[in-house]
From TrEMBL:
One family name in Pfam for this protein: HTH_20
UniProt organism field: Lysinibacillus sphaericus (Bacillus sphaericus)
Taxonomic path: Bacteria, Bacillati, Bacillota, Bacilli, Bacillales
SUPFAM superfamilies (alphabetical): Winged helix' DNA-binding domain (SSF46785)
Name assigned to this protein: Transcriptional regulator
Protein backbone atom coordinates (compact mmCIF):
# COMPACT_ATOMS: atom_id res chain seq x y z
CA UNK A 1 0.00 0.00 0.00
CA UNK A 2 1.29 3.46 -0.92
CA UNK A 3 1.82 5.75 2.05
CA UNK A 4 -0.71 8.63 2.12
CA UNK A 5 2.08 11.21 2.50
CA UNK A 6 3.65 10.06 -0.76
CA UNK A 7 0.33 10.54 -2.54
CA UNK A 8 -0.33 14.00 -1.11
CA UNK A 9 3.22 15.22 -1.74
CA UNK A 10 3.09 13.98 -5.33
CA UNK A 11 -0.18 15.79 -6.06
CA UNK A 12 0.85 18.94 -4.19
CA UNK A 13 2.74 20.16 -7.24
CA UNK A 14 0.31 22.34 -9.23
CA UNK A 15 1.67 21.43 -12.67
CA UNK A 16 1.70 17.72 -11.85
CA UNK A 17 -1.88 17.84 -10.62
CA UNK A 18 -2.92 19.71 -13.79
CA UNK A 19 -1.23 17.04 -15.90
CA UNK A 20 -3.21 14.35 -14.07
CA UNK A 21 -6.49 16.25 -14.65
CA UNK A 22 -5.61 16.59 -18.33
CA UNK A 23 -4.94 12.85 -18.70
CA UNK A 24 -8.26 12.07 -16.99
CA UNK A 25 -10.17 14.29 -19.40
CA UNK A 26 -8.39 13.02 -22.51
CA UNK A 27 -9.48 9.43 -21.86
CA UNK A 28 -6.66 8.19 -24.10
CA UNK A 29 -2.95 7.50 -23.90
CA UNK A 30 -0.50 10.41 -23.93
CA UNK A 31 3.23 10.60 -24.52
CA UNK A 32 5.96 12.64 -22.86
CA UNK A 33 5.99 14.92 -25.90
CA UNK A 34 2.21 15.40 -25.72
CA UNK A 35 2.55 16.63 -22.15
CA UNK A 36 5.62 18.75 -22.91
CA UNK A 37 3.76 20.51 -25.74
CA UNK A 38 0.52 20.93 -23.81
CA UNK A 39 2.14 22.47 -20.72
CA UNK A 40 5.06 24.21 -22.44
CA UNK A 41 7.69 22.37 -20.43
CA UNK A 42 10.86 20.49 -21.37
CA UNK A 43 10.32 16.79 -22.19
CA UNK A 44 12.62 15.79 -19.32
CA UNK A 45 10.40 17.72 -16.89
CA UNK A 46 7.28 16.16 -18.40
CA UNK A 47 8.83 12.70 -18.03
CA UNK A 48 9.59 13.40 -14.36
CA UNK A 49 5.99 14.45 -13.65
CA UNK A 50 4.61 11.37 -15.42
CA UNK A 51 6.99 9.09 -13.54
CA UNK A 52 5.91 10.58 -10.20
CA UNK A 53 2.23 10.11 -11.07
CA UNK A 54 2.79 6.50 -12.13
CA UNK A 55 4.62 5.79 -8.86
CA UNK A 56 1.41 6.42 -6.88
CA UNK A 57 -0.63 4.33 -9.36
CA UNK A 58 -3.04 7.01 -10.55
CA UNK A 59 -1.69 6.67 -14.08
CA UNK A 60 -0.23 3.61 -15.80
CA UNK A 61 2.74 3.38 -18.15
CA UNK A 62 3.07 1.03 -21.09
CA UNK A 63 4.93 0.70 -24.38
CA UNK A 64 3.37 1.20 -27.80
CA UNK A 65 4.74 1.11 -31.33
CA UNK A 66 5.22 4.58 -32.80
CA UNK A 67 4.52 3.57 -36.41
CA UNK A 68 7.88 4.99 -37.45
CA UNK A 69 9.96 1.91 -36.76
CA UNK A 70 12.50 1.54 -34.00
CA UNK A 71 11.81 0.85 -30.35
CA UNK A 72 8.27 1.19 -28.92
CA UNK A 73 7.63 4.45 -27.09
CA UNK A 74 6.27 4.83 -23.57
CA UNK A 75 2.66 5.95 -23.27
CA UNK A 76 0.60 6.88 -20.23
CA UNK A 77 -3.09 6.78 -19.32
CA UNK A 78 -5.27 7.26 -16.24
CA UNK A 79 -5.63 4.25 -13.97
CA UNK A 80 -9.15 2.82 -14.00
CA UNK A 81 -9.06 2.12 -10.28
CA UNK A 82 -7.75 5.47 -9.10
CA UNK A 83 -6.39 5.84 -5.58
CA UNK A 84 -7.94 5.78 -2.11
CA UNK A 85 -6.57 8.05 0.60
CA UNK A 86 -7.58 7.68 4.26
CA UNK A 87 -6.05 8.40 7.68
CA UNK A 88 -6.01 5.76 9.09
CA UNK A 89 -6.77 3.13 6.46
CA UNK A 90 -10.42 2.10 6.39
CA UNK A 91 -12.12 -0.62 4.41
CA UNK A 92 -14.99 1.56 3.21
CA UNK A 93 -15.17 -0.19 -0.16
CA UNK A 94 -16.21 -3.41 1.54
CA UNK A 95 -18.83 -1.60 3.59
CA UNK A 96 -20.16 -0.03 0.38
CA UNK A 97 -20.28 -3.48 -1.24
CA UNK A 98 -22.32 -4.89 1.66
CA UNK A 99 -24.73 -1.94 1.57
CA UNK A 100 -25.34 -2.23 -2.17
CA UNK A 101 -25.92 -5.97 -1.91
CA UNK A 102 -28.40 -5.40 0.92
CA UNK A 103 -30.33 -2.83 -1.15
CA UNK A 104 -30.40 -5.27 -4.06
CA UNK A 105 -31.71 -8.09 -1.87
CA UNK A 106 -34.43 -5.97 -0.26
CA UNK A 107 -35.70 -4.68 -3.61
CA UNK A 108 -37.33 -1.45 -4.90
CA UNK A 109 -38.59 -0.21 -1.54
CA UNK A 110 -35.05 -0.26 -0.14
CA UNK A 111 -33.72 1.61 -3.18
CA UNK A 112 -36.44 4.24 -2.81
CA UNK A 113 -35.52 4.73 0.86
CA UNK A 114 -31.83 5.00 -0.01
CA UNK A 115 -32.68 7.62 -2.61
CA UNK A 116 -34.44 9.65 0.08
CA UNK A 117 -31.40 9.33 2.35
CA UNK A 118 -28.87 10.29 -0.33
CA UNK A 119 -31.06 13.21 -1.44
CA UNK A 120 -31.37 14.53 2.12
CA UNK A 121 -27.63 14.11 2.65
CA UNK A 122 -26.85 16.20 -0.42
CA UNK A 123 -29.53 18.76 0.49
CA UNK A 124 -28.38 19.14 4.11
CA UNK A 125 -24.71 19.31 3.22
CA UNK A 126 -25.34 22.16 0.80
CA UNK A 127 -27.60 23.92 3.32
CA UNK A 128 -24.75 23.81 5.81
CA UNK A 129 -22.49 25.55 3.29
CA UNK A 130 -25.20 28.11 2.57
CA UNK A 131 -25.68 28.86 6.28
CA UNK A 132 -21.94 29.28 6.75
CA UNK A 133 -21.87 31.78 3.88
CA UNK A 134 -24.87 33.66 5.27
CA UNK A 135 -23.02 34.22 8.54
CA UNK A 136 -20.51 36.23 6.54
CA UNK A 137 -23.01 37.89 4.18
CA UNK A 138 -26.62 38.91 4.69
CA UNK A 139 -27.64 37.25 1.44
CA UNK A 140 -26.34 35.04 -1.34
CA UNK A 141 -26.47 36.27 -4.91
CA UNK A 142 -27.31 34.01 -7.81
CA UNK A 143 -23.64 33.98 -8.83
CA UNK A 144 -22.54 33.05 -5.30
CA UNK A 145 -24.99 30.13 -5.23
CA UNK A 146 -23.70 29.01 -8.59
CA UNK A 147 -20.15 29.16 -7.27
CA UNK A 148 -21.09 27.02 -4.25
CA UNK A 149 -22.60 24.43 -6.56
CA UNK A 150 -19.59 24.24 -8.86
CA UNK A 151 -17.07 24.25 -5.98
CA UNK A 152 -18.81 21.32 -4.28
CA UNK A 153 -19.17 19.41 -7.53
CA UNK A 154 -15.42 19.76 -8.08
CA UNK A 155 -14.75 18.31 -4.62
CA UNK A 156 -16.48 15.03 -5.54
CA UNK A 157 -14.74 14.69 -8.88
CA UNK A 158 -16.90 16.65 -11.33
CA UNK A 159 -15.47 19.13 -13.80
CA UNK A 160 -17.97 22.01 -14.07
CA UNK A 161 -18.59 24.26 -17.09
CA UNK A 162 -20.96 27.23 -17.01
CA UNK A 163 -22.78 28.58 -20.07
CA UNK A 164 -25.08 31.59 -20.33
CA UNK A 165 -28.68 30.99 -21.49
CA UNK A 166 -31.58 33.34 -22.22
CA UNK A 167 -33.16 32.74 -18.80
CA UNK A 168 -30.14 32.04 -16.60
CA UNK A 169 -27.22 29.64 -16.61
CA UNK A 170 -26.53 26.15 -17.84
CA UNK A 171 -24.11 24.14 -15.72
CA UNK A 172 -22.56 21.04 -17.25
CA UNK A 173 -20.93 18.59 -14.83
CA UNK A 174 -18.63 15.97 -16.32
CA UNK A 175 -16.94 13.18 -14.40
CA UNK A 176 -14.10 11.30 -16.08
CA UNK A 177 -13.11 8.94 -13.28
CA UNK A 178 -16.15 7.73 -11.33
CA UNK A 179 -15.49 7.30 -7.57
CA UNK A 180 -17.68 4.15 -7.70
CA UNK A 181 -15.98 2.61 -10.74
CA UNK A 182 -15.53 -0.82 -9.13
CA UNK A 183 -19.27 -1.14 -8.45
CA UNK A 184 -20.47 -0.09 -11.92
CA UNK A 185 -20.09 -3.48 -13.60
CA UNK A 186 -22.46 -5.27 -11.22
CA UNK A 187 -24.52 -2.57 -9.48
CA UNK A 188 -24.61 0.41 -11.87
CA UNK A 189 -28.37 0.90 -11.53
CA UNK A 190 -28.16 1.33 -7.75
CA UNK A 191 -24.92 3.34 -7.66
CA UNK A 192 -25.92 5.82 -10.36
CA UNK A 193 -29.41 6.30 -8.95
CA UNK A 194 -28.09 7.16 -5.48
CA UNK A 195 -25.30 9.40 -6.79
CA UNK A 196 -27.81 11.29 -8.93
CA UNK A 197 -30.26 11.81 -6.05
CA UNK A 198 -27.39 13.19 -3.93
CA UNK A 199 -26.60 15.74 -6.64
CA UNK A 200 -30.29 16.67 -6.93
CA UNK A 201 -30.38 17.32 -3.18
CA UNK A 202 -27.46 19.74 -3.45
CA UNK A 203 -29.04 21.46 -6.43
CA UNK A 204 -32.47 21.88 -4.80
CA UNK A 205 -30.88 23.33 -1.67
CA UNK A 206 -29.68 26.24 -3.80
CA UNK A 207 -32.19 26.71 -6.61
CA UNK A 208 -35.92 26.09 -6.44
CA UNK A 209 -36.19 26.52 -10.24
CA UNK A 210 -33.93 24.04 -11.97
CA UNK A 211 -33.82 21.29 -14.56
CA UNK A 212 -31.53 18.30 -14.07
CA UNK A 213 -30.76 15.97 -17.01
CA UNK A 214 -28.17 13.24 -17.51
CA UNK A 215 -26.94 13.41 -21.11
CA UNK A 216 -24.09 10.88 -21.05
CA UNK A 217 -23.32 7.86 -18.87
CA UNK A 218 -20.38 5.46 -18.51
CA UNK A 219 -22.79 2.57 -18.10
CA UNK A 220 -24.13 3.27 -21.59
CA UNK A 221 -20.64 2.95 -23.11
CA UNK A 222 -19.90 6.69 -22.95
CA UNK A 223 -16.40 7.92 -22.07
CA UNK A 224 -17.74 9.90 -19.13
CA UNK A 225 -20.82 10.77 -17.10
CA UNK A 226 -22.28 14.19 -17.91
CA UNK A 227 -25.16 16.10 -16.34
CA UNK A 228 -26.76 19.25 -17.74
CA UNK A 229 -28.35 21.53 -15.17
CA UNK A 230 -30.38 24.61 -16.09
CA UNK A 231 -30.96 27.18 -13.35
CA UNK A 232 -32.85 30.46 -13.69
CA UNK A 233 -31.74 33.75 -12.17
CA UNK A 234 -35.30 34.43 -10.96
CA UNK A 235 -35.25 32.06 -8.01
CA UNK A 236 -37.06 32.10 -4.69
Amino acid sequence: MIHPLKITSTLADETRYSIYEYILKEKKTVTVQNIADKFSIHPNVARLHLTKLSEINIITADFAKTGKGGRPGRVYKASEKGVSLTFPRRDEERLLKWTIQLVQELGPSALTKCQEISYQDGYQQMKNYVNAELKLNNMLTFEQKLQLLTDNAALIGYTPQIQQTETGKKVIFSIFNCPFQEQLDTHSDIVCTLHESYLKGQLNALFSNNEFIQIESMIHNCDLCKYEINVTEIDS
